[in-house]
Write a structure and sequence with these properties.
With about 140 residues, the chain is of the alpha+beta class. The chain is about 55% helix and about 15% strand. The protein has a domain of about 60 residues: P-loop containing nucleotide triphosphate hydrolases (Rossmann fold), CATH 3.40.50.300. It is found in: Membrane.
Length: about 140
Amino acid sequence: GQKARVNLARALYRNADVYLLDDPLSAVDVKVSKHLFYRSIKDYLCDKICILVTHQIQFLQDATKIIVLDKGEMIQMGTYNELISSSSSFAHLLEDINQQEQQQSAANIQQQQSIISSTYSEKEDEDEVMSNIDTKQQGAIKW
């Protein structure tokens, strides 16, 4: 992640007219990639030509033009809205990704709920054991 940020900073420092960025956001987490995209690429390079190669589809809506490649060949080109409105492989790809994210989100929610319920049941068992221990230790101690 740090190497990717340093390389992006070096590229921006050159103050060129054209930038070719080969997936600079892949080695950083979601929060950092969002910050880098909006502050570095979108804001700082707003008056430059920037070709961004990426697999991170969350930034596609901010692109001026999108080129969709399949096995090294260009299969589509257009704006985000043009590609979405056409019944294209791009639109189908986004639908598939959206469904996968929803399924993953549902699985994560179920996993969290099972962890929470098992934590509560362990807590209840612990309280029950502690109350049993308390009742067994009642009485006076002989000296």
